[in-house]
Amino acid sequence: MPLVTLRQVLDEAQKREFAVGAFNFNNMEQLQGVMQAFKNTRCFGIIQASRGALKYTNHDFLHHLALAAVELFPDVPIVLHLDHGDSLDTVKKVISLGFTSVMIDGSRLSFEENVALTRSVVDFAHPRGVSVEGELGVLGGIEEDVEGKSAFTDPDQVEEFVAKTGVDALAVAVGTSHGAYKFSAEPRIRQDLIQETHRRVPDCAVVLHGASSVPSSLIEEIDRYGGSMSKAKGVPIKMLQEAIKRGIRKINVDTDVRLAVTATIRRVLNERPDVFDPREYLGEARKRITSIVEEKTRAFGGANRVPEDFQPISLKDQAARYSRG
Description:
Elements: H1 6-16, E1 20-24, H2 28-41, E2 45-50, H3 51-57, H4 59-72, E3 78-85, H5 88-96, E4 101-104, H6 111-125, E5 131-136, E6 140-143, E7 146-148, H7 155-165, E8 169-172, E9 177-178, H8 191-200, E10 205-208, H9 216-224, H10 237-246, E11 248-253, H11 255-271, H12 278-299, H13 315-324
Parallel strand pairs: 1-2, 1-11, 2-3, 3-4, 4-5, 5-8, 6-9, 8-10, 10-11
Antiparallel strand pairs: 6-7
Helix pairs in contact: 2-12, 3-4, 5-6, 9-11, 11-12
């Protein structure tokens, strides 16, 4: 099955009221672990790469990893998505590599500048059949080169932003943040903002970034084997499930995959100090990733959601749909 567009996947999620998990990857083991989970749960899959991942792997290495995933998992409908693109040039580069979806993050610009940047990306991407995610409001925290001080999405700007930009999906700032340290007190997100955004733009999929749950079992394991992450805190699964009921259709997860890798490697090297072959500890980490992603997919309601007669829309046909409005 060829790569599919984010728009087609999110249309399915909108129609059937579930959320699709979007998982970041930086290397082969991460991608293999995520893809195996997608296959096991018969779900739509979004694999996404940040600017940091593209820099770490080199664009071409990452591109070919994604192509291998498509070839080796032919029954999984996969979206290849750019996470937190910062410029039209970055968008042009990844689209030339075959990405079927891009996120442009103009959230730290003024409203007018954000609209202009996002519109320029839509004008380039849609004629090529590529879906676009924008962002309104600023997520706090830090992850790779994505850093900022929180500013909630203003619901009074949502309709204007979507109308002027033409985005397929909108990331909102509702209290989540990037990284492992999302809350200093009890976790809380603005479910009312999610619901109001979905009400105002029902045809635009609402996206939740910074949504890793930071499972306590992984934190305890990391600390047991020499780490120091006791203050890490994420978004509880029940809170994410409530957000899905309010209208969230795409949930970004990165930190939980990293924690799974780190916890597993620390444990294996501590319990088996004679191990020196990376395949042994990375292989175990890969299995752990699969387990974590399967849990998330089921919790988001995404398992067994691919229709038996599902047919991916080609980029050419998607472009034609965009041109018809």
